[in-house]
Specification:
- By secondary structure, this protein is of the alpha/beta class.
- It has 15 helices and twelve strands.
- The strands form two sheets. Strands 3-4-5-2-1-6 form a six-stranded mixed beta sheet. A six-stranded mixed beta sheet has the order 8-9-7-10-11-12, sandwiched between helices.
């Protein structure tokens, strides 16, 4: 059985570009034999570092495989921190297979998912939060996701937690000073308590990051908007208008929508899932009742709700389901003079799914609301549940330390050690193999 040390001593390779036919494909190699492999396949000495050179590649039988651009990145000035070689080859299946076979014949193995980035992490080229930012950048589907991932990949979150670490160490120094030198004349009395203001300020900062974490998580994973209301209020027609296509079936018969119909789109540069749900009413129909139950659950879990009321047959019960920040849509405004709109304390729109009246105003308001609640801030923040858990652990330890300063400095010191441990876990510095395996398994092969 291979140990971690022997695994990272291997020289690995993988296709860094997408599978399938293409003009160019990039084959990446990393490890101690990378330079030797380049010389053997090209039959020539190593090119200058980071300078592209045209080389004929040949297999172990000296048969020509392809003409390729080759790049040589000697350690430690490479992505992984190891010797790295890239072959820019023609992207046919046959060429890729031939190069892969030649690399196997030279004793290399195919990289596991995320192994290149894992090696970069292990060699100190990036921390765990930066690696997560890289994974998010690869998966980004919207402009907002791209910008957030870039900010994290450039070390934005690292800069924040390094500041927290410094504040904890400053407090720890005061606490340890009182513990280690209690009788020294030049050590002030109650030295540990002088750490109190700094710990209170740090706790406030940690709470702020936790409170703002929903913003980062939603940018990364997307927002959920649920359309809710009574049967035949026009929910499916609203979904179709917002989707600009016939995504949901629309009929005059009440209760047509039984299951949830979803449309994925982008609003304000963020991914959004808009859901049409079953009409909310009491029913003896087993299938429809299940649809109502699912509708209520989706409404409860959504980030934003659009409550629809039919102006021609008003049923205002949906208002009790809405919360602050939700929208009220009075549909069928083309059949009303507008005098019977309810005076509610939420953003209210008179719309018509037939004429399109009010939809420009609704879509502009949706964009404003999403920007206000979920758009990016100038600083990087917490974007994953793992980040939030680590910061919550640090916050609890900091608060406990602050309480123990005047009671038992030894306990406060233990609390601050725990807070430092939480920051180390956030950075990926502690021995958390299961977490590391989960993070890097999310990468594609070749990254």
């Amino acid at each position: 059985m291979k140990t971690r040390e022997t695994i990272f001593a291997d020289t690995i390779f993988a296709l860094a570009t997408a599978q399938g036919r293409a003009g160019v494909a990039v084959m990446r190699i990393s490890g101690p034999k990378a330079g030797e492999v380049l010389c053997k396949l090209s039959g020539r000495k190593l090119p200058p570092p980071r300078m592209a050179r045209l080389r004929v590649l040949q297999d172990t039988n000296k048969d020509r495989i392809d003409e390729a651009l080759v790049l040589w990145f000697p350690a430690p000035a490479s992505f992984t921190g190891e010797d790295v070689v890239e072959f820019h080859i023609h992207g046919s299946v046959a060429v890729i297979e031939a190069v892969s076979t030649a690399l196997y014949d030279l004793g290399l193995r195919q990289a596991d998912a995320g192994e290149f980035t894992r090696r970069a992490f292990e060699n100190g080229k990036l921390d765990l939060t930066e690696a997560e930012g890289l994974a998010d950048l690869i998966d980004a589907q919207s402009d907002g996701q791209r910008r957030q991932a870039l900010r994290q990949m450039r070390g934005g979150l690292r800069d924040i937690y390094e500041g927290w670490r410094t504040q904890i160490l400053d407090a720890f120094a005061l606490v340890e000073g009182e513990i280690d030198f209690p009788d020294e004349g030049d050590v002030p009395d109650a030295l540990a308590q002088k750490a109190g203001p700094g710990l209170k300020a740090l706790a406030k900062e940690l709470k702020g990051q936790i409170a703002d974490s929903k913003r980062g998580e939603r940018v990364r994973s997307g927002l959920d908007i649920a359309i809710i209301g009574a049967p035949n209020a026009g929910k499916s027609s609203i979904l179709n208008r917002l989707a600009r296509r016939d995504a949901a079936i629309v009929t005059p018969e009440a209760g047509t929508t039984r299951d949830i119909v979803e449309v994925h789109t982008h609003i304000a540069g963020l991914p959004v899932c808009i859901s049409d749900t079953a009409g909310l009413r009491e029913t003896d129909n087993v299938v429809e009742a299940e649809g109502v139950r699912r509708a209520k659950r989706r409404a409860r879990d959504a980030d934003l709700r659009l409550g629809v009321i039919d102006l021609s047959n008003k049923n205002n019960e949906v208002l009790t389901t809405l919360t602050a920040g939700d929208f009220v849509l009075y549909n069928k405004a083309d059949l009303s003079n507008g005098s019977d709109l309810e005076n509610v304390s939420r953003e209210t729109f008179a719309i018509s799914t037939v004429s399109g009246e009010g939809f420009d105003e609704l879509e502009s308001a949706l964009e404003r609301e999403i920007i206000s609640r979920f758009s990016l801030t100038e600083q990087a923040g917490l974007t994953r549940t793992r980040h939030v858990d680590c910061v919550r652990s640090a916050l609890k330890a900091v608060e406990n330390a602050n309480k123990n300063l005047s009671i038992a400095p030894e306990l406060a010191g233990a609390d601050l050690r725990h807070a430092l441990g939480a920051i180390k876990e956030l950075a990926g510095e502690s021995d958390i193999e299961a977490v590391l395996d989960r993070v890097f398994s999310q990468f594609c092969i070749g990254k």
